[in-house]
């Protein structure tokens, strides 16, 4: 007589409700009694897919294998162990390693080539069965749509309520009159009244118009999606997009796997009639205005000197460079005028919403700054401070803190980095479980794994940098020499900056980021320090980067010194009659 345990599993919640697992347990108990063994414990997983390796009862079973709790394990079938051949092999290998007996469907499993082959074949059949189930479900869904059935596809359209299929009625869409009134208001405001999307958003938020999720936060992307949705004129289209995947292949020069959605030809779309909300004439008027906007003159994308380098000191958001054309109406003839400046992204996005919404989201006190002002001031700071070793040393925390303080700070940073590496490993395990359970496809799995790898590599590099900095605490003379070399090289490079390209490249090489406050500017960068060490009888050189922050006040008079006219003298252009004027004139 041996001590025995059993393992049973069902995949879906429906099987759990119907208590189909009870039949498995009864059969396994009968086999244990028939073999003359005593049942000491039952491991049951209800509602867990066999494509998942991480299951509560299975994890407990794998932990108890290493103890003397039992001698024999009973399974009803191989697909109850796992649906993947790889997972089956892992679990059975762990059981056999601890010299436990395995009973599958009443037969003793002995680790020999014949049984191993049989198990592999059965596991492959289980994988094929799971793939066929997914295929049948997908094909049935497409057939129902082709026959006029409606599916929400996990996305509920604003203005409609989706009703699921019941035993007495098919799935259907009905008009939500509250939301439909908002849809009509949005289309009419844009087509008939000529209101901009930003003003539409403000109006919706001012009147507390709810979104589909009831949050009341409207964005231009929601309005644009509403304008492009042909469901509002009476047809719900399916099979509109297809996924194109490209897997990483170093042989062909493809470094990363990628996937994107491509719109199918309109002849491949499947349309299902639904109740319309707006007339087709109103829909066409909206698209006529959208097409006119696309053909209207727009500023071409131009990289500015500090593009992607300026951050807002008030809220921490990125600052973008914009160019805007104006007409100077002070003279007899209108004269075009170009303004370039840097503006906080968060503050700009808040301006497109209602005042009540901005109060809920918070505020940013950062004012925009003209390009000429900030660029001139930055290069003045570089010329007077970045090329001076004394001033750079005063801006480095390495020389401000004592040795004991530096050691405590580095240990705290190391602990935070180790915690980030641990969380990264947990995220990778969760992604694997989602993939094995079929909740995400292969392309999504690869994409998420690539993101995890990038995050892990960054954390690993940060850890290595911190470990390299530990010997520098007691070697300040090495750091001082590196600071002098860095400042000298910056001075030489700065003398060669004569045009836009050389200045832009200088900033990319010597400046990490620029932080703009209303009353000051900060230049953040790193200084490379060479550290030589003996390892295995060989001398190796490692590069350690130490951060610095150069600060300088910027006066209010300096920010407004280049203003050419009082406020309100320039009128923003929003009419096409000035298009030819802009294209023919050279703008300064």
List the helices and strands and how they pair.
Blueprint lengths: L2 E8 L2 H5 L3 H14 L3 E9 L9 H9 L7 E4 L2 H4 L3 H13 L3 E4 L2 E3 L3 H34 L13 E4 L8 E4 L1 H15 L5 H10 L13 H8 L7 E4 L2 E6 L11 E6 L6 E4 L6 H16 L14 E3 L6 E10 L6 E10 H6 L4 H7 L7 E2 H16 L2 H6 L2 H4 L2 H34 L5 H28 L6 H20 L4 H11 L2 E4 L3 E16 L2 E16 L2 H4 L10 E3 L6 H6 L4
Parallel strand pairs: 1-2, 1-3, 3-4, 12-16
Antiparallel strand pairs: 4-5, 6-7, 8-11, 9-10, 13-14, 13-19, 14-15, 16-17, 17-18
Helix pairs in contact: 7-10, 16-17
List the keywords.
Rossmann fold; four-stranded mixed beta sheet; single chain; 3 domains; alpha+beta; 588 residues
Q: What does this 3D model show about the protein?
A:
With 588 residues, the chain is an alpha+beta fold. The protein has three domains: 140 residues, Resolvase, N-terminal catalytic domain (Rossmann fold, 3-Layer(aba) Sandwich); 97 residues, no CATH class; 213 residues, no CATH class. The protein is built from 21 helices and 19 strands. The chain has a five-stranded mixed sheet, with helices on both faces. A hairpin with a 2-residue loop joins β17 and β18. α16 runs antiparallel to α17. The C terminus is likely disordered.
